[in-house]
Structure formats: structure tokens, C-alpha cells
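> @MW can you paste both from yesterday?
MW: sure, first one:
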Amino acid sequence: MWKANRGKEGGWDVVLDWAPYVSERLVLIGEDGKSAGRYYTITIGADTLTKSLSDLRTADGWNDFSDDSGAASRAIREVLINIITDQGKRLPRTPVVARTGWHHLPDVGLTYVYADGRTYPNGRFARVIGAPEPIRRAAAPLDRAASDAECRRAVGDIAAHGWASLMALAVGARSLAYSLRPVSAAFVLDAAPNSGKTSAAHTARSLLLTHRPHAWPPVPTKGMSSTATDIECALDFEGDMPTLLDDIPLTRASSSAQIRDMEKKLELVIRAAGNATEIKGRRNRDLTAKPANRVRSIPVIAAQMLPPNMQESLYRRSVVVYLSRDGGEVDWRWYKAGGGQRLTVPLRTIGDKIIAQLHALRDADGYLEDLERQAFAELAPHVEAVLPERSDTMDGVLTAAAAMLSGLGLVAAATDMSASDLISVAAAPLADSLSRQAARMDAQSTAQDGVATAVGEVLRRAFSRGRLHIRDEKGVIRPSVSGQVEQDQGLTPKRDGSGWEGKGPAAYWLPHRGPALGITTKNLNMLLKESGDRRVNCYVDRALPDALLQADAILRNSSQKDRVASHRVRVGAENLRLLLLKPDLIWDF
């Protein structure tokens, strides 16, 4: 580029000694099949990168080019954008999608787009953007396809080495048809460390992905230690393919902050999956609605422990499989000894066959509905045997479980095997796992409903039996709660008549805080454990505040995002960290 010097005739200065070369014009296809944005493949010096038009309007959009000196100026960028768009309009339009899976592309119709940019049918003129490099490499085709005999042998090996692995394979296969007929639920593997949950999940993942340079285990979607936004974007990109969020790293010693973080992420993922809604709403700068991220497959979540206070409503939107280290659900030793490695080629072949079969269907929704009906008919008797009086809530979980199990029908069709034979391997143990989930849901519902009541009962008894006493907001021992007798406040008069005395830990009456009854987490949990009440004697100190907050037993701290369940309160000369209990749990006013 050159620019004339003002006031000088015939003089020119070099502004830039390079110009961008555009090799592709990419048009993003939105959810409605219409154009939703522009991208260009640009070469500058030794770098060839794909950039959106909006990226090019900012200095950050040019930073990845190592030879773009001079593009920091806004005026120069505007000229360069004109050069790029002028070159682009002379090139053919290449459709681009921002996620994998099934798309209705202009002029060619239903097309499956892989993470590495391949399509089924082959040669469809389309590209995918936003694929993380590990995922793109893992999606690249293998050197060969497995024979039919190899595929059948692989499925037989999976079934022989754990029903949970076969169930995970069913979930992965059913995920390939998600856009054609959604399954609004999450699949959760709840297991202790070294119980095979990751091996089971990777069995499903291997239908489309093979990690490089080592073929096993495949690369996960995201780790649960990633940020919520990172998980959200990764799930949105991975449409119609087996997903894996690995691994929820909670233990009984985890802090309340760690538990709260996992609860937040599970809330985002499971509720969006179960309700078929956006994960989190988005707005443009002018406050108009912006397309938001969605769960586009059956999310598979591996956990060594679910949050102890996970809401019953999240269980209701999930199918949970419980694994033990040596219970036979997954033969993790076989996978570790090389069994998983030997599955790689057959599973990739099965995944490609399922996609081809789905594309050939005239009525995919009807076909998938028939498979779900068959799976439900074979699963229901086993569930009836272990849950004869199940709730309406569990009927919804059963329907979701059958829809996931129907993925074995897709596997059977791709391998010329019997769907009933495969389903029979998983149906009975899956029913047992669902009965355990039902018990957990009942216990969670009871616990959430009864925690507040139990806390009130424990404290009322502690006051009346002299194991807890009241102090006022200055820390003075005296009757402070209007309308309540001294004994109900844990107080007795001193023998010399000079005041009051109380035994046990202190609770502080704070009339200007709600009113509220303040007590330290440590002292409250000590009283709860001493009570022996099963509703409230199972919490560690770190988990108790969040449990009480969920049970609506304490006041929320709206001024501290990292300490929403406790408050810093000035009591006399001390600055205490207290839980603020609602007093009507304890006394009648």
C-alpha cells in the first residue's frame, strides 16, 4: 500500500510493504439456514488463517499474523478490510457451520459435518469453524475401516466387560441422532475413583474420535474444572456426537466453594439439557436477542462424587449409573490392559455406519421412536420388578433411560446384530441403578424439605436443655427475644441475682438483621451432630452453610459473592463470621 504525501507533488511513502491475499469466502449458516456472518481465509506472509469480519475490525484480530506490521492503526485496518472484501466477492461462497452434526445446507439438504470438516455424504461443499485443534485431529479418519466381523467382536467385547460400558455405547450412538429426535436428559456416571467411569464414557466417545498420538483414551469435551463459559461453548460446538465432561473432582473433604462451583455447572448443563433451552441467554450491544449456546447432544458427565445437596430436580432430568470398583459394571482392568485400544478401529467404523444409516432414512423421527418403544418395552418389566410403586417423576426418568438405551438399536443395525440381545445385557442392571437413583431422589427431596424443620427442632431442644444460650447484639448474656421465656433462650438467673447465665455455645439475637439468630458454623454443626437427627447430622462444616441456604433456613448474603451463606457481624468488640438463621424456625412469634 502507498499513500501520497500531502503538499508534495509526486512523492510517495510506503505505509505497508505487504497486502493480504484471500483464498476463501466463507458464509456462516445460521440455525434458520440463512447467512449469519462472514469469514475469510487470509494469507499474510507465512501465515494462513481464517478470520471473521468482526475480528478484522479489531486490532486483536490481526495479532495472530506474525507479518502484519502496521495493522494497529484503525484507518489502515479499514483500508485492509476493503481490500479483503473486494477479493472475497470474486470468490465462490463456501457454507460454514459453527458446530458439528446434522445441518440442512443450502442446495444440498441434510448433511452431517464432522469436527475435522469432512461431511456425509462426502464432498459436500461445507466447512466447520471453531473446532479445537485436539478435537479436529481426533476426528480425522483412520487409515482403514474395520470388517463386519471386527465390529461385532468389538461390541461383544464391550458387553462382556461391563453392562455400564455397553450402556455408555448406547448413549453415544443415540447422540448421533440428537438433532433428528432429541433426548432431553443427561447421562451421569457416579462412581468412586478407579471404577471405570472414564473407560465407559470413552467407549461412547470413540465412535467419532481417536486421540493422537495415542488412540486410547479419546480426548474429552471438557474437564469439569474448566470455567462454566468454557464448558458451555464446548457443548454448543459438539452437536450430534458423544460428549464427555470429565471429571467432577469432589470428595467429602471438598470446600463449600468447590461444591458450589460444581453445583452451578451441573445446574447450567443438566437443566438446559432437560428443558431443551439455552444454556445462558445472550444479548447484543443494542439489547436485542443474540443466538445463545445450547446442549446439542446427550451430555455425559463423569463424577467421582456428585454434590451432596444436588437438587432433586436435577436428578429428575438425568439418568444416573452407579459404579463400584469391583462390582462388574465396568471391567476397568481389561480396558487398562489394552482392551480399549483394540476397540478404536471398530468403534470408528460403527460410528460412520450409524451416520450413513441415519442419512438414508426417509422418516428418521419415526424410526427412532420405534427403537425407543422397543427399548422401553424391554426395560419396563425390570423396572417394575424393583420399583413397583414408582412416582410420576421416575416415569420421566424411565422414558429418558429407554431413549438412551435405544441407541443399541442403532448399534445393532450397523453391525447386523440383535438389538434385543444387546438390550438384555443392560436392561436388568440399569433398572437396579434406576431404583438406586429413585431412592436418592426421595432422600434428597425429604432432606431438602426437612432440613429447615430439623434445624429448628435441634436448636429448640438445645435451648431448653441448657446446651445453647442467647446473647444480645453486643454479646451480653441476657433475655433478648421478645415474647420468649428465659428457659426457651437457654438462660437461668444467677444465684446472686446479678444477671443471667447460660451453658454451651452462644447464639446472638440480631433484631436489625431480619431479625435473625446468629451462630457460628462450627457451633451449629456440633449441635446438629450431637442431636443424632439423620436429616442434619451428616454435613461437614464446609458443606453445611450451602445446605442451609438451599433449605431456606438462613439469610443470604447479597454483598459477598464468595460468601453468600454467611455474614460478617460486629458483636461487641468482636467481628464474627455467622450464619443468620430465620428465628421462626425455632420460636412461634
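MW: second:
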Amino acid sequence: MDLTRRVSLYRLRPSEDLYAMRSDRAILDDHEFITLRVVVGGLPALLVAGLPEDDPAEWGGMVRSLTSVDIDFRTRTASAALFIRCGTEVYAVTFGQGWRLIRESRIDRDFGLQFAVRVLDPDEIRQITRWALSAKSRVDRSSVPGGQGLWAFGLREHAELVRQLTGYVRAEVPVELSHVRKMRNRNNFRLRLEFGDGVRMPLSSDGAGMAADLAEITRVLRDNTIDPRLQPLTWVRRIPSRDDRRAALERAVLDLLSGVGDGEVGIAYPARYHEGPPVDHFRGRINGTDIDTPDLTLADLTRPLLDPLSTGRLDALRTGRIAGYDEQGQTVGGDLPALHWIAAEVEHEETRCVLLDGDWYELGDEYIRHVQTVTERAFAHTPNWALPAWDDVRMPNEDTYNRHVARTDPRFLLLDKNLVFTRAHRRGFEACDLLGPGNELVHVKRTSSRTGSSPLSHLFAQGLVAAETLTDPRAWQDFTTLVANRSPERAARLGHRPSAIVYAIHRSDRLLTPDTLFTFARSALVSAWVTLTTYGIPVYVYVIP
């Protein structure tokens, strides 16, 4: 019987030279690692393996701290990587920490997900790890015990980047691996796979069997169609930190900050600022220049960067720090690199790429079409009441406008800067600026070409955080108590959850339309639209004249 073992498999970017697939560590530390040309089931291959020098155990310091006994704890971890050419493809099978022996720039990071969407059963996904493109948290790993399917994770397929999946292969999909043939006659056997940049899977321990397994994986990638339910998982791709495209993308951002180039750039709140009280003031330091302003704009970031911009470096934006503070002088989300406060959208080699929270993402055509469609739908939906026009001279900010609305139209209850405190939001969050005539949560924002439309991404995400939180009965009761303190009559007819979310937006220099939104601002709007309409909570965009 063919023996199999669960190992990690990576697909590499093709190269005529297998030696070029090795990491610098494997090349430079040649006294620790060996490199041998081998043949695996008739396929040309390269074995890189070794036992590195002893490393200090990570937990040794804690032992010393607890016991005052200084013992030099050491660990040794064997590792190996087997680079195999199979037709036009090159794969790497890794053992131990063998993934460290692969040159990162050669790893095809789409491989795991591309394999997953062709074989996984959406109803049998057990674990998912995703990076949020525009929602409230940066990284989220969730598990479902079984049988509930992918959508039990609350996946917002249009606005999140899925990085890891664990689940079972669809029963009707033929994946003729050695392990499947060996286990086929066992009752209730299902092939379980783990997907990330690579695939964690059982492969044959025999050379001929390994060659057959790799050929089968190549066939699946070539011939199997993508499950339509999983297709959205491929719409957004994170661009790895060592990807060659990053240098060109960063040069494009420098051009935009200098006032030239194609694309858009603006201020965007980092994700950790989507919760908590509103930001009242910004303070920081970039390239030796202090920042102290109630209204953060691109000029605040670019003014200190004349030298870095001229020399083509983003060092000052990476090392400079900015923090936002509430009215009490407490930081809302801590200080972060200045680069994390910039969002940009650029075209590169016929692909759309966005910079958000210091990271780069490539957006597929399907993603762009989906977001555009839902954004237009959100703008087309309006509430059955109207807000007064915004006089930019008499009402220079949201605070003055909100007070004007509540003063002139008693149907609206002013709740601006009134925070709801819950267990999950001990510092409080703003449920809305105005409570509408039909108990809609109205979030108000003023924008212009000076600030760009990117602050709207924070508005959309903040509204989503508030509405999602208020679907919890205990949080809704806390909100009801807040309303009762202002108007017992309104509190008595609140109902049991928000009736709708309304984003009321005024653009002072020209009319706001779906086309004037950044892609990442649209992502936040679509995230709110899809998630809240799933809860049965309508979402409206109201453009204030």
C-alpha cells in the first residue's frame, strides 16, 4: 500500500534553474544546508536540507525570570525542501521549517486559494482567516464546528481578503491523489485540506506516487471549474511585502503626493479607528515636523516630505507617527505610521491596486463590477424625508449642521457625540449623529476636494460597526436608555433594532456621486449595504444639497 504523509506543498513561479528557487539562507549558510540534485519518480528535483545551529529557546527568558536560574536552553529544528519540476510547473514540498528554504519572491501565493475554490465544499469549510479590506478588524480567524458552511462565518465576499481556509473536498469532485485511492473504501472518508499560500495535504512517500500526485494537482488546476459560491474569494488579492510590483506602486504614490501621475490619493482612517469615539484632534510628527490639527489633510502629510519626495523615498511616512484624540484628549486608536493614514488607488500593468492601512491589494475586474453595482444601488435608495441644504458659510462643520437640523426640524433627535457604552465598547461608540423621523440612524459627513472622498470610508465603516453592535439586544437596550435621557417619547417607539442606516453626505465643491468615491470607500459602503440588508436593516445614501 502506498504510504502517504501530510506535508506542505507550494507552487513556484517557473524558472529554468531550480537552484534559483532557494532562499538566501540556504545559499549563504552552505555549511549548515546541503543542496543535492535528485530524481523523484522520473522528475528532475533539488533537495535542500539541513540542521541549523542551535537557536535559543523562545521561552528560556521566562524560565530565567521565574526561577533566577540561568540555563542556556537551546532548540534545533531540522528542515528540508524538495523542489520538483512537473511538466511546466515547479512545486516545493516542505518538511519541518522547510518553507524557510524557499525564496519568497518565487512563491506563487495564489496557488492555495486557486486550488481551494476548485475542490472545496462551501458547506464543509471549518476554518477561515481573512484580512478586512475596509471593515472594522484587520485580521479575523473563525472556526465553525461543522455542517454550517462558509456563510456561517458572515463573510463579506466583496470586501475581504481570504488568506487561509480549512475544509473538506466536495464528494463529487474527482481528486485522484494517492491518499484518496488508499482511503477510498473506508466508511465516511472525506479528504480534508488546509489552504494558505500553499496547501497542507497528504502526498505519496513513493517517488512514482509523488509524481502522479503532482500531475493530478496540475490537472485539477487546469481542468476543474471554480465553484460559483467560492468565486468571490478570488476577487481581492493581497500583494506580498516582497512582491516586485511594490516598488513601482510606491513610486506611483509618490507621484500622486507630488501632484502628478494617474490615480487618486487621500486621507483614510486606519481600521482600528473605525470603533470608539469620534476623533476630535490629530497630533504627530513626520520628518521632524510636528502635526497638530483638528482636520487632518494630505497637506499635513506632504508638507514635511519635500526631501523624501524628491529622492523617491517613503521612509518619512513609514517612520512618522500620527494619533487621533477624542474630546477628552484620550487617543482613540493609538499612534500609527503616517503611511497608514494614506489611501491610494493606482493602475499598474492593467490592474487596479489600492493602498490601505499600509498594505497593497490587487482588485479583480469582478470585484470592481460588483462594488460599482451595489454602490449605485445604495445611492439610488433614499429615505422618505429630506434634510435641509447645507450652508457652508454658516455651517462650517458637521456639528453646526447637525444642531441646525435638530433645531429646525423636531422630527430629528440630536445624538451627535452622545456615546453608547457596552462591554465590547467600554470607551463608547457613536450610534448616530441624528435619530431620524422613522428611527433611522443618520450618520452625517461633509467632504470636499480638500479632504477628498476617502474620509467617507470611515463614515461607512463606523455606521456598520454601530448598526452591527446594536443588533445585540443588550446593546440596543443601552441605546434605548441613551435616547430616553433625551426624549422618553422617542425611546418608547424605538422598536427592537435600527429601522435603517442613512449616510447623509454633503460635498461642498461639487455633487457627490458613486463615481467620485474611492474604490476603498465604495468597499466600506458595500460592506455596510450587504451585511445590514442581510440583517434586514435597509441602507440609504442621502446626498445633502
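> thanks! The longest helix spans residues 207-223.
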